[in-house]
Amino acid sequence: MAAQEKTAFFRCDASPDIGSGHVMRCLTLAESLSKKGWRCAFLCTKETPAILPALATSGFDVYSPEETPDYANFLIVDHYGLDQKYEASTRLWARKIIVLDDLADRAHNCDLLLDQTYGRSAEDYRPLVPEGCRILTGAEYALLRPQFPAARPAALARRAGSIDRVLISFGNTNIHNITTKALEDLSGITSKKLALDVVLGSRAPYFRDVEQIVRAIADQSFHAIRLLTDVTDMASLMTGADFAVGAGGTTSWERCCLGLPALIIEIADNQRLLAARLHKAGAAHNLGWHENIGSSSLARTLETYIMKPDLGRAMAHKAAALCDGRGLGYLADIINKSYCWHTA
Q1: What pTM did the predictor assign?
Q2: Could you give the CA distance from residue 65 to residue 281 in angstroms, rounded to a whole number?
Q3: CB 303 within 8 A of CB 191
């Protein structure tokens, strides 16, 4: 990539342990910038495109993290394992650095930092970034694909509180085989026949386990169930769902944008703060850490919402109030304006 081009590199990884959320939000931003004339490329581990087929088929160049680009207008870093030491080393070729974070637990060398955690304050990062760094915090900056704000009016219009279709999605990688555990619990619901949509990456760990329990539920229970792999239009699935069961990561903002009530199970340490804050705001029901959830507790909780539609309707309203899905446009415009200012 030549210096005169609008260029952006993304440093992020995906794996069975960390999931694919970091890469997905970077891919979302890259697609948005690409439409504005930017050339984008990724620096990530070899397994990342294998974990996330959407990156492999995106058309963006993917390089090893050890490769050093000649030049970039922007480097976007979305990685819990990297800090100011790595970021400072890239100043030789990256004109501006943006960090996407939600931990506020380490120092950064960047020009702009974005944390989309609900309730996060810029003051949480002030001691961790250089003087003059611009800090954007809060759910209004959540980086959602355009399909979510586009689906928002239709989704909100159908949030009546009654529960017939439930979406079970813990991300592409099925950390701790949580999808199987959730389905084992949900299969015990007897108060109402449900349509269960299970979403999972085709290369996720324990995929065969999930297939097996889906077949068992289809054969032995009165619930309708289907397993959907490598889904590209989650917005449509969420719009059509009445309730969701999932993790407390970045997909929380997709659910909030569409006013989809949800039961959250924490499957990673970095999800605990967000899950707790969503629960306190009434925007989701946090069941807590995955290892501490007892047998049938998921089913019992969901049955409470089945029997009391007003609870789900209220949750949908509170969730939708937290995030309207326009954060991607905000950040893309900031990047564009910054480039134009520096090249004027």
Answers
A1: 0.91
A2: 39
A3: yes
